[in-house]
Amino acid sequence: MDMRAWQVIRHPIRAGAICFAAALGWATGAGAQVTATGALEPLQTVVIGSYVSGIVESVTCDVNAVVAKGQVCAKIDPRRFQRAVEQAKAAVENAQAQLAVHQAAYAQALAAYERNKALYEKGVVSKAVYEAMTSAYEQAKAQIDLDKANIDLRKAEMGTAELNLSYTDIIAPIDGIVLTRKIETGETVAATLQSPTLFVMASDLKKLRLTASVKEADVVSIKKGDAATCSAKALPKRTFNARVAQVRNDPETVNGEVFYKVVLEVDNQDLLLKPGMSASVRISAGKD
Q1: Does the pTM of the predicted model rise above 0.90?
Q2: What are the Cα distances from residue 216, in Å, to 22, 228, 243, 254, 269?
């Protein structure tokens, strides 16, 4: 066998938390057989944290639980955040009440201004009286604008309080399965500079992903859609269908040789393959 047909990758590069692999090229061009080894990983992995701090009131999702998008998996004690919402609502109502009071004062100031303006034009009242009424009217009008701005501010604060309250529900962002649970009921979650990790979830495990580093001489014969077969070290007598999902253009140079990452999706309908398993894949380059 040509000594160039194998290459051990000693400097793996992480690709979306998928895997690292070494590739063997048995031939080049259409019909080439390119094999690679690596670790199987979910198509999508999501780390779920918390935006708010507090005591964990309940945990409803455990490891290996199948969850639906939007499902509540844990809850942080909401009482402090409920009070903040109530206070914010009261502040809005108070600001609206102040506006109503000042609107009544504005109506009186407007009426006095218009009456004294007419009298001033007829020479019945002095300029000083007219200017005083004008100033009172303008102040009342400015107060209305200030009250409306204050209402907008209080409503924004209420929106923030309601958002923080909603964050006490820790929900699943995707349909999938819980890989890791890092919280227990009664623990304190501290969301300060960085959101703490509460769960790690993966998308449907009926398809897994493997990424291989392939030499430049071999990668030119591989294209998206090429068929492949995959086998796991833990299941040596089983093979699983796979297909090339992506041939990346970003090169990696290792010991003077250029490699490209080839991403494959592996069928796992029986759920026999597990994330993290060592696997090998043989790509039938140029064959759909």
Answers
A1: no
A2: 13, 19, 19, 12, 32
